[in-house]
Amino acid sequence: MAASQAVDRTQVVLPVALTLTVLTGFTGLAYEVAWQKYLAILLGSHAEATAAVLGIFLGGLSAGYAIFGRLTRRVVERAQTRGEAPRLLYIYALVEAGIGLYALLFPWTFGLAQKLSLVGPTGTGSAFAFDVGLSALLLGPPTVLMGGTIPILTLVLAGSLDRATRVHAWVYGSNTAGAFAGALAGGFVLIPVLGLDSVMSAMACLNLVAAAGFWQLDRRHRELAPDPSPSPLAQTVPRLGAWAAVALLAGFAMMTLQTILNRIGGLAFGSSQFTFAMVVAVFVLCIALGSLGVSAFNRIPRGFVVGSQWLLVFLLFPLYVLMGDAPYWAHVIRVIFRPIELAFYGYQIAIFTGLLLLLAVPIGLSGALLPLLFHELRREVRDLGSVAGRLYAWNTIGSLLGALVGGYVLFFWLDLHHIYRVVMGTVAVGAALLTLLVFRPLPRWVPVLILLPTLGAIWLLPAWSEQRLSSGLFRAREPMRYSFRGPSEMFEHRRRGKPIFYQDGPTSSVAVVESEGKPETRSIIVNGKPDGNLEADYPTMALSALIPALMAERYERAFVIGWGTGVTTGELAALAGNRSVRVAEISRAVIAAAPYFDHGNGNASKSPKVEILRGDAYRTLLRSQRKFDLIVSEPSNPWVTGVEMLYSREFLQAAREHLAPGGVYAQWFHVYESDVDVVSLVFRTYADVFPHVSVWFALGSDLLLLGFDQPERALDVDALAERFAQPDFTAGFARVGIDRFAQLLAHELVPLGTLHAVELEGEIQTLRHPILSYRAARAFFLGRRSWLPSLSSPAQRELSLQNSLLHRFAAGGEALPERLLEAATYELCRFRRTEQCATLFARWQLDRPGSPRLKSALAEARQINPASRRDLAPGKLRELRMLYEGKLPDVDESALAQQAERMTQRFLLHYYHAVPFDRRTIEAAWRRCRGDDCEDRQREAWQRLSSLDGEVPVWSESAAPSEREPTVPAWDAEEEDASEEDDRDFDSGETG
Fold first, then answer.
1. Which residue has the higher pLDDT, 126 or 788?
2. Are 256 and 419 in contact (CB under 8 A)?
3. Distance between CA atoms of 110 and 21, rounded to whole angstroms?
């Protein structure tokens, strides 16, 4: 009778408890996502740091499972001795309350840990070990408490031994389902919207709500207790160590497999935050589905657990084949979706669905293993929590080994496909051991007879193609001729060079690709994305060194972030006045590939001036005791996970603090595969840290952002010209094709002072509220080329003219001398800045109509870059002259809005600070437009024209910015898309 009442009460409590368990699972994964970003600030974003964070998290969970497993047994025994009901729900309420209260304090404790880190040991190894210790102190308490969920709730909710397996599966599945939702919410919504500190507060509140819920359950059902009466299902299970080994092997295999899936996901979809969040979420959901699937069985047949694991082994074979061609299948999904804003989340849902269909059965079988093992090990009710605790502790230790060994150590010697085979072998060994344990007394040779051929088949699997994995198909947004004809035909016809080096390192997968046996065409491919080409990207990488070195007070000591092809480092080391170049490179594989580029970078990897420091740039810079004359940051894609840290206020502040007086900080950035919101965010953050900023262009859509503490040197044209004439600088610029000083000055896009001429309002990128990577990933999906944010207010226009180096070199005056115009237009068109080239020609036509030098220069420019003919067409130049003259042609009233919109577009794309337009022409064009349709378009134009300067045009003083995303008008879309495609192919560093 007592047992029946306990079951009835459990059935009342169970739905509420499981709902709260979903909530705690949600907070657990949201915490993990946030903690990884927190500790990346402290430890860095390199492989050792990631492994350490995972190790601490999993180690804490493992300890928690073991501690609370033992605690449940003691609580039950003590309560039975006193004749009382054990208050396990009350204990669990305290656990959740402890997690919530700790999370509320976490931002403060993390700040304290940051301060302690800076006063700790300074040696590379000892400092990292010290910071890992601080991280363990930060994550230890909450992760140990999180380990109480499975042992406590399994025991208190089971009621009796015959229900234990189903209830345990419900608890594990519900908690894991919540974790799935937490992984998605954390990766897609919570962190970009709330920021890390607010996420911690919000999740803490949810934990406190859960604590209150469990406390109420305890108050209303305090007498709820496990039924200690014997059950006919109870069995004595020997060899507990062997069962623990099965759990450990499974944990190792699945954590290692998750690492592989994350890496393959990066190669297939791009290494963005969204990709990793999606892979982890699908993986966790499949585990939840597997666990909940066990709860559907009223009776579990003997040997079911064995069959499930052997089935998992054999399902890993076709998965191996599919994963080798993952970039192709990801490409098929990608080209189905048009590059428009609304398609972004549809694309993510398609990825999620595809991964779920692929992984549901194999990973679901893995998720079913622990509940099935629990079913085999249960013996008596009071021991249920202890059994669950030990089982999950050993499984989590296996996951810990998977994170440290499978996710890090093995990459020193093995590539991805080798490690996948290790996973398959581990699962096979676990299945064989499980066969012996379940079907005893079975002769040992029977599972061995199955195991040996299986291991042989694993050994004989073909290696994954290095060319296919490093293909970077995720950048192809439009269907190609062979997109839907299968991977073999696609890769047979899409040859982008031959890999001459390939390595899957702990941090990244790196390939060196060469076209047709030509060493000068070598590209470095990191996680499927070209990060530099010796031929196509040489001007950008060389100018990233030479321009800041020209403008700094001194250039003796330099710090470079990212090795790439080594060109930036090589150009700095080639300068006679340079004494040392320290390079922070996070990837071991990139360092291993460095000698392959020595023939094109002046043997940079062998230069005695060069010192390569392997590690995270932020941590390396913070730990440095030196000050540098130059700091140059090469990673230019903020959508790539980890790179966004280089664009944060905290990192830029660290860089500024490590500059010597008169020093310069330079960041290679680009506007292809971006949008104006991303560019504006980067500009605002840069201007928030550096009091003086200028922007230069390198090749095509590549930009150089320069930050100064002291602007005097950067505005001294005579000193710059004198340094330009030095033999070492002359030789360096000559390698880029810049022979005249005036050519170089044409590269200045935004003169000093322009960004700070007005107060810049809006969000900035910080480490505790990282928003850049999320916005940049959405912009990368669209794959368009952004225009520069508008910096055309009267104050900005005035400062641009005052500080423009071209104007200073010309000794003032509104009209530039023809010799400067000739050199500047040549350079602008040659470096694919065709919009600004056209602007300068329009100004030249206006100032000196009929000039013979103008006519010949225009003809030469059209020959230098055939793609510029569209921008240099007579009709386009006529429109640009109108922006200078302020003349508005007579058009039909119905076409006034279209004309104003077209002129706005021209204004934004062709604005050049050396010869700036007057914004009053655009304002006049919009004033002529009347009607509701005009009003809507005016708001949109306002948003675009005031994207960074914050000033409201006179024609729209009462207008609020539009909520709609600025778009390229239909009348110009085809033209802009064509030039954008040309730029992207050239800038990408891909060889063909």
1. 788
2. yes
3. 27
According to the model, what pLDDT value does residue 209 have?
95
Please count the other Cβ atoms lying within 10 Å of the Cβ belonging to residue 978.
12
CB-neighbour burial class of residue 15 (10 A; exposed 0-12, middle 13-18, buried 19+): exposed
> H/E/C letters for each residue in 763-818?
CCCCCCCCCHHHHHHHHHHHCCECCCCCCCCHHHHHHHHHHCHHHHHCCCCCCCCH
- pLDDT tens for 426-483 read 999 999 999 988 887 777 777 788 899 999 999 999 999 999 999 889 988 888 888 8
Predicted TM-score (pTM) of this structure: 0.88
CA distance 726 to 798: 33
Residue 61 and residue 148: Cα distance in Å, rounded? 8
Quick one: which of 65, 196, 200 has its CA closest to 143?
65
The pLDDT value recorded for residue 314 is: 94
Distances (CA, A) of 952 to 31, 636, 760, 956, 961: 42, 32, 13, 6, 10
Angle between helices 932-945 and 896-910 (to 10 degrees): 10
Task: Compute the C-alpha angle 216/220/222, nearest 5°.
Answer: 100
Name the residue among 488, 185, 203, 435 with its Cα closest to residue 324. 488
Sign of CA dihedral 969, 972, 974, 979: negative
Arithmetic mean of pLDDT, 964-982 = 34
Q: Show Cβ contacts of residue 734 under 8 Å, excluding neighbours closer than 6 positions.
A: none
pLDDT digits (tens, 9 = 90+) for 352-376: 999 999 999 999 999 888 888 877 7
Q: Taking CA 680 as the corner, what is the angle to CA 679 and CA 683, rounded to the nearest 5 degrees?
A: 90
Sheet arrangement for strand 518-526: 498-504, 509-515, 518-526, 529-533
Q: Say whether 84 sits in a helix, a strand or coil.
A: coil
Contacts of 893 (CB under 8 A, 6+ apart): none
